[in-house]
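Quick one, tokens below. Sequence please?
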């Protein structure tokens, strides 16, 4: 009998690529380049969190937590949602703690979306949403955010809604553009969700990194808008707000019926997020207002520093309103593509950044015009990147 060739990937896994962002971090290590690619802080987390994490292990919080999350953490998340987001959330029936926002998003999609359903995704988009759609069987339907302010056209959005639309994914503040959706924009999306009975999955992981710019700019949570609490799944995590991306603690907030489904999927995907870090996460969330104000102020300084660097070397960018990235238009610089530019940057200049195509659908003709710089870095790291870019004289 002839032996069958061994299949090395399911059709599902074959439909998406390895993460370009994480690949750039590997290249940064290989070429000893300054890593401005992956979205992670290279500075210490608050000391209170280190103390809380070591206390949790010493208190023997070392076994599986309740699968949908440590009770103390869920209570803290519920209090936080009331304090910052204008949301009333039952910690016992409406929260599922997951391994980061990453798992919360894919568990939500797998729990609520069927094969053949459509998911509206604004592009550019955080690269995980494509594979999330594929893993859950959804067909992504892309709606463009238009430069320079990355707003959407209401008619284009309305045209994307149809009988098959099950959900829309939004991300505010937005990775990679730094856009913060206005209340008016969210009201437009909410109106369409209510009209078509479509659920909104909102990734608000950068909610505390918003730049005021003298405009009283504020993060608005979709679930706080009229009639949206029951139609919204709010995804969040400890990763960015507390500079602990490696702890892998995030959550999904949704009405009880949705939560039951999300919890089932979550249970069989991961059982639970790390128990001691969940317990310590409660301490993080309860930090005073001063912590959140300082976080935004420090990121305002880092943004200024990064913008000064790009101004000096002559790279165009869109000034971000939130999150910790500068999205740059490199189409004027004369490189063949975003990938050619990022390869030149990592190998010749010694700075790793992310090629923009990973944030666009394959048929978007502008997908090779952009790269993303991450500025969640120590001053010394940004200074090192500056020195390398200055020495390489990246000029037009
Ligand atoms: N969502 C967005 C928009 C992100 O930018 C990231 C990380 O860069 C994540 C989710 C991943 O979050 P987590 O570390 O909680 O899985």
């Amino acid at each position: 009998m002839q032996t069958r060739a061994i299949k090395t990937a399911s059709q599902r896994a074959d439909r998406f690529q390895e993460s370009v962002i994480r690949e750039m971090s590997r290249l940064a290590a290989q070429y000893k380049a300054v890593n401005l690619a992956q979205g992670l802080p290279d500075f210490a987390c608050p000391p209170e969190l280190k103390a809380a994490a070591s206390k949790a292990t010493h208190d023997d919080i070392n076994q599986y937590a309740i699968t949908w999350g440590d009770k103390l953490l869920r209570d803290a998340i519920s209090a936080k949602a009331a304090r910052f987001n204008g949301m009333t959330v039952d910690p016992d029936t409406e929260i599922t703690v997951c391994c980061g926002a990453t798992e919360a998003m894919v568990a939500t999609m797998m729990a609520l979306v069927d094969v053949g359903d459509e998911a509206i995704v604004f592009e550019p988009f955080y690269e995980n949403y494509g594979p999330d759609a594929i893993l859950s069987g959804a067909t992504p339907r892309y709606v463009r955010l238009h430069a320079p302010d990355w707003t959407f056209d209401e008619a284009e959005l309305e045209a994307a809604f149809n009988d098959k639309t099950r959900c829309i994914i939004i991300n505010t503040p937005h990775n990679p553009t730094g856009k913060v959706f206005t209340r008016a924009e969210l009201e437009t999306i909410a109106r369409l969700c209510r009209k078509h009975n479509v659920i909104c999955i909102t990734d608000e992981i950068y909610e505390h990194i918003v730049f005021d710019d003298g405009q009283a700019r504020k993060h608005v949570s979709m679930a706080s808008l009229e009639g949206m609490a029951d139609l919204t799944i709010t995804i969040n995590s400890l990763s960015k707000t507390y500079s602990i991306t490696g702890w892998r603690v995030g959550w999904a907030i949704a009405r009880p019926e949705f939560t039951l489904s999300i919890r089932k999927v979550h249970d069989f995907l991961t059982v639970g997020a790390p128990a001691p870090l969940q317990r310590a996460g409660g301490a993080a969330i309860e930090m005073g207002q001063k912590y959140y104000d300082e976080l935004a102020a420090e990121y305002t300084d880092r943004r200024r520093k990064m913008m000064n660097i790009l101004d000096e070397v002559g790279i165009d960018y869109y000034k971000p309103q939130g999150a910790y990235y500068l999205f740059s238009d490199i189409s004027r610089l004369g490189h063949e593509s975003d990938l050619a530019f990022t390869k030149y940057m990592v190998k010749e200049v010694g700075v790793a950044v992310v090629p923009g195509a990973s944030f666009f659908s394959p048929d978007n003709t502008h997908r090779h015009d952009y790269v993303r710089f991450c500025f969640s870095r120590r001053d010394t790291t940004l200074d090192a990147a500056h020195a390398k870019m200055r020495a390489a004289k990246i000029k037009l």
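Residues 13-45+290-391 form a domain with the Aspartate Aminotransferase, domain 1 fold (CATH 3.90.1150.10). DSSP finds 13 helices and 14 strands in the chain.
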